[in-house]
Target: Acetyltransferase
Amino acid sequence: MIVPLESQRPDAIERLLDDAFGADRHGRTAYLIRGKAAWIPALSFAVVDDDGALIGSLQSWPVALTQADGSRSPYIMVGPVAVDPSHQGGGHGRAMMDAVVAAARVQGTPPLMMIGDPEYYGRFWGFSANDTNGWRAPGPVEQRRLLALSVDGRAVGGSGMLGPDIRVTA
Model:
């Protein structure tokens, strides 16, 4: 069953992410892109089994593409999409992706972006690397794996560096 991720204990989420991606995951480029931004509750989901145990999580993060002139284009970074290794292949990751894309469309969010397999995420949800050739990341990444999806017709693309979109308010 899909539930809001905020209904799950933070330590259970971290344990699931370690099981799915390894404890060394914090140095990966995706972590560098989102920096210290907090994940977005309205666009982050979990899968729980019939006993309420956490078996999947998907987090979404506010990020931005900063152009050479300093202007910033907001994006929502999707991922990691994690499923407990013993439950993989059951459609749980796909169900969470369906949920985040649907929620983003309803909310009219900025375009979604992710680091992922273009064939898989393109086939099911329409993510594409066609307009991300000018994007740079603060760590190593295959350019073809930088994917974007406009959920409301906003333009996707541009050129610049990806990073967290942390807004400071007084």
